[in-house]
Amino acid sequence: MARVTKAHRPARLHLVDGTYELYRAHFSKRPGHKAPDGRDVKATVALASSLLALLHDAKEEVTHIAVAFDNPIRSFRNDLFDGYKSDVGVPEELHAQFDSAEEAARALGIVVWSMNELEADDALATAAVRFAGEFEQVRILTPDKDLAQVVKGSHIVQVDRLREKLIDEAAVVAVRGVEPASIPDYLALVGDTADGIPGIPGFGERGASTLLMEYKTVDAIPDDPAVWRVKLRGAERLGATLASMRKEAELYKKLATLRLDAPLKEGVADLAHRGVPREAFMAWCDALAVRDLRTRPKRWAGE
Per CATH, which fold does 10-176+259-288 belong to? Predict the structure, then answer.
């Protein structure tokens, strides 16, 4: 059998959760940075630095890439449930950098999906499923639990850059105790504090995963725990609670289910990263008085 060389392997697609990366950048140890007009742009500059590190990471072998942002941090889900995550409590100096973060990513030659009504996670999920057949592997760069629902074998995976962990389908089952398709049901039962989903009282990770490994969806779990095909401590109480909160569980599952129809206009060729556009990047550095990143790009577009 002929050896498949690096040059002949199909490319990876890297899908970056820009909102997560921006938050991570804001709370990083990177020194503060002010733009010439006095704006706090530490998170923006730290984000650009992080994206440059990704583009140059020999292990990641970035050839095709896009980054998605929540801008604003509100979506159709806020209309469905008042308690869903919003921009309430976001530090003012961070909130003011969402537009500039997108500008930074574009200055690096990266496709940006700025989401309004839908969320960044919807864009990432849509792209992962839509383009999976075109790549050897799709790597979704975020540890967010909800993206696990589109993980498939070792073909669509998540990458937690901070902890240097790869999350494939086996890891999802090992950590959550459910298959990827059951993640929305799992989050409906146990809740997701990051997204403001309260969950069903009494359901912990073990109870939820035990039921869902057997029944797959919340809808399929019988109201009467006496007929459950699995044994759970406190089953009678859990069954009664779930029976009385079916509508809530249905809503929470809807909140946790990612859309796969985000309006992404780019095709595979558009996602190819051909290097950092020198003029645009230098103009961005000048606008924010960034000096330490000017020589960081290792590949310039068209050169």
Answer: Rossmann fold (3.40.50)
